[in-house]
């Protein structure tokens, strides 16, 4: 099926959404926002991603509706092109090549066939200018747009610092401590300046500008949290401004409502403030939006507001300041410390999310499943505060228990909490079971559960390793008192140390009989039933950075990576070094379902991946130059359906998929499929009518209809024609007034004859029957699929994916696939 | 959308005894009523029918008390010498008692003279009882025999002389009218069947048996003797189920509560212990003034009556459970609003919208929500919070510290407030759970109010007190560390891995001297 195509690195989530202000479509049904190199079209009603507009070769920096056709969208990008899209169908209409980096785009009603963009000034660094670009109406897909005129010099690069006034009469732009207003008709430029700091020590730096849609009024936000409303700015001297102050830190964005009666402002406090009638006294708040507000936009009918946040979340808010929806993919955490962990229950990726929360991110649907509040404290958004951070997360083998470690570092002392959460089947969420304050005297460096599938509860052991030179073993205690509120709780069972070295890593062997704990340069192996030290390994010089046990056939090996650039493999039976390799390994990640171990190295500013089996030092697969950024974490996620991998080299991708997170918090994965194939599959997925959520039922129905329509396109025509032919007789019968009609006995044979089908058309009729038969078969197929409805959506999608592939396959392969599918069914029903 | 998250007050496990459901239940008795009897109370038996009078056998009399009466409502005193073991029949109509002279007398509750007298025992009869068929009586005497009597004819049916010592306790099966059990000072418990010529089962208790008890189901037998209470499985042929040793003197009496869930045992060590019959763990215990000889519990556990060696009868009545109802009544809204919407039956097509519960915030939480840190600190320094729930005060201080506003909240206070704060800190800083944050608070207070030191005598005094408290605590900790060091030394000599331990010590010492060298 798939030829041994090369392995490609594919970005699969976490692309920054906050490149530019989001735009609502004219009817407020869609929300258009930039996401990395793409423009995403979301349904405002269902939060579903409807279209993904791809085509730009660089970061998309601005989007704007075409003022002359509200169903079209302009987008500009750092690749120097402006593209015109039909966003409802996801079609690229035109590409205008400008040739400069485009940093912002403004499309105005008043300007015929030209848009305003911000471009860097030629020859000068960090100087930008606002120019108007004429978009020629010539036919053809790719058009050169070299004809542009400079409107303003020395503008700020940020799209927030430039705004167009009432009916495009003037443009206001702020940079540093200056505000300049340019009137198009009078060709007059007014400059207003503020002192750098005011008497009270506030910082007067301009951060954003917004213009009143009806009146001549400009609102500016400042770095000290003030908002100034400027009026009467036609005159260079007689201008007036009023000040409003609520934000305690930098005003991130400002936006007027459609009628201009209220002004919306947002900042790092994560509070959306609505100021009424431009006065300081009357304001409404929508607090606790999660994270700092980056952009605010208002729909053209004024019913919806939308805020884009720094953590890649989009919040849709009703005009009465009621929270409506939030669109969240991979939430960008301040600092990912937990690493990538896979929840065994949902197969979701678990990592730091919102401050103090743990996000469960569904990989298949690129959505956040839910966010678990771990810290359970009010989050105070203020710079310089030591926030409580979630640093370690571990799941037990079946996802029944979750252990989390949170820490807060106040200069002299450290606050540490180890929390154990139990999955409550009734409420389908994690419930706090035990909280241990200060489990260690210093930072916890590693934590792991003993992974034993069969003996889940009794033998469940948690091990934590800390910088206080100890590792501690925690076990479940059962309270035998039947009246006790909570029968299970955790307590410390064993404390181990080794020559007062800091414990850095811990790891259980696959069968749970051995525990390996690394103490700086030494790896110690402990018997997990008696807690006796069995043996020690070390590979001096160099401290141990990461350790893991081999799995399945390679369970007798222990792999360790040192920070002196060595990867070592020790044999646990002979207690000797089996092999070692010179490799600066950053991440060591074993695949839970196979013997393979992935090691990511970081050398000379590029990351490389090495996949190997512990029993042979030669790697199976080497992938150099994964990405420019440093890779922070990696995780193997088990696949629902084992993938058929053509090449022997990529056999390790068969049962699970490797995801990794870069420094920029972008989630990447590997794909063996060619880009076209991926595209078609995803575009098919996206082509769901009316942006309805993809339910199993809708997919079922859609397929059914599709099959039917394929068969009888031409046949229906024939039948219809046939009906049209004898319609005169029937028409005559129906339209003649009753009192002039002949007797019914006379009309009856004519009418019946008209319904009969003549002999030469019979064949067509038979074919139609066959079509019906076919559709019945399809129904049977769908019956078969009813069993599957319990499945989660993502499964359905993958099923669908399979289904579509069968169209291209030969019959033998099709049969094989069917078998595979059948097998899966049994597995699902057991679920 | 998240809402405001209130300050989490960390829960600390309460030291001391755990308050369980059982302690609450068994503490729910009024202060006891003491009644003086003429001699040691050897038996108390409750009438099985309302109004649950109880017969108390002491000296040569049998007194019958009503539920709340402090004076006997009836007395049977036709005994020349001591009477023993007055026991009611199932229907509460008849009463049987043994006596020192060896005769057994049967009384009608309403009459005075005995209805029947059974003579046959050569020595004192310490145990008598009715069989479940109501027409027969079993007895055990100091002449080592256990007899069975027919009530109508007043004649002996059968006499078993299998025990080899005094028979001092016994009970009859409630299910089988032919089975009764006696326990003797020969360390055995014997099960007799009236239909058989000899005992059907012998259980070796191991100590002189003072009391036996059969569970209502008849499957489990409890025997008490010596310091032990032993539970036997009769259906498994008298297998020992569990042996309880919770008293430190002889256990004299046993009793089950009305539900059969709890077993009570009274002992000469002045304690009554209550066991759970599922786990056989002590769930509660009562303390009495003198050694206990007899114990009885009325139906529904309304009354606990304990008889002692000095002839005092201790009666405890259960507290009526009214207080709860009263408080509930107070909270009930008016009938009109109460009924409103409640009697509406939702139809099938109705869409049920649940109303979210209103979250009530504490005062300090409300102030913290509005970022009013100074006022929030004031709120938790109110006397009732500061004195009774210091953990709340400390939690709010912690929260303020986390928000970085603790310093400003502590600043700008007058003399009275500072001295109040300092008193709190002085008192609580030595509690380990509060220490980390209160040290920070003390640091900040000294920092902030250093310039005004010496202006107020009250505040200066408080500062001195704080210093004193901390000095004392440091001394104490030093002492503790010394003890710990001594213990370490002791343990080090005890462990087998002595060699390695010494080596470690040596290396540490070496590095230390090296450090010193470098320092020098």
From TrEMBL, chain A:
Pfam families: Beta-prop_WDR75_1st (PF23869), Beta-prop_WDR75_2nd (PF23769). The keyword Transmembrane does not apply. Residues 766-793 have a biased composition (Acidic residues). PROSITE patterns: WD_REPEATS_1, WD_REPEATS_2, WD_REPEATS_REGION. SUPFAM superfamilies: Quinoprotein alcohol dehydrogenase-like, WD40 repeat-like. GO terms for molecular function: RNA binding. Residues 766-800 are annotated as: Disordered. Residues 340-665 form the WD repeat-containing protein 75 second beta-propeller domain. GO terms for cellular component: small-subunit processome. It is found in: Nucleus, Nucleolus. WD repeats lie at residues 53-95. Signal peptide: none annotated. One of its GO terms (biological process) is positive regulation of transcription by RNA polymerase I. Transmembrane segments: none annotated. InterPro entries: Beta-prop_WDR75_2nd, Quinoprotein_ADH-like_sf, WD40/YVTN_repeat-like_dom_sf, WD40_repeat_CS, WD40_repeat_dom_sf, WD40_rpt, WDR75. Keywords: Nucleus, Repeat, Ribosome biogenesis, rRNA processing, Transcription, WD repeat. This is WD repeat domain 75.
UniProtKB/TrEMBL annotation, chain B:
WD repeats lie at residues 118-159, 244-285. Coiled coil: none annotated. Keywords: Nucleus, Repeat, rRNA processing, WD repeat. InterPro entries: U3_snoRNA-assocProt_15_C, WD40/YVTN_repeat-like_dom_sf, WD40_repeat_CS, WD40_repeat_dom_sf, WD40_rpt. CDD domains: WD40 (cd00200). Pfam families: UTP15_C, WD40. One of its GO terms (cellular component) is nucleolus. GO terms for biological process: positive regulation of transcription by RNA polymerase I; rRNA processing. It is found in: Nucleus, Nucleolus. Residues 343-490 form the U3 small nucleolar RNA-associated protein 15 C-terminal domain. Ribosome biogenesis factor. Involved in nucleolar processing of pre-18S ribosomal RNA. Required for optimal pre-ribosomal RNA transcription by RNA polymerase I. Part of the small subunit (SSU) processome, first precursor of the small eukaryotic ribosomal subunit. During the assembly of the SSU processome in the nucleolus, many ribosome biogenesis factors, an RNA chaperone and ribosomal proteins associate with the nascent pre-rRNA and work in concert to generate RNA folding, modifications, rearrangements and cleavage as well as targeted degradation of pre-ribosomal RNA by the RNA exosome. This is U3 small nucleolar RNA-associated protein 15 homolog. It comes from Cairina moschata. The lineage of its organism: Eukaryota, Metazoa, Chordata, Craniata, Vertebrata.
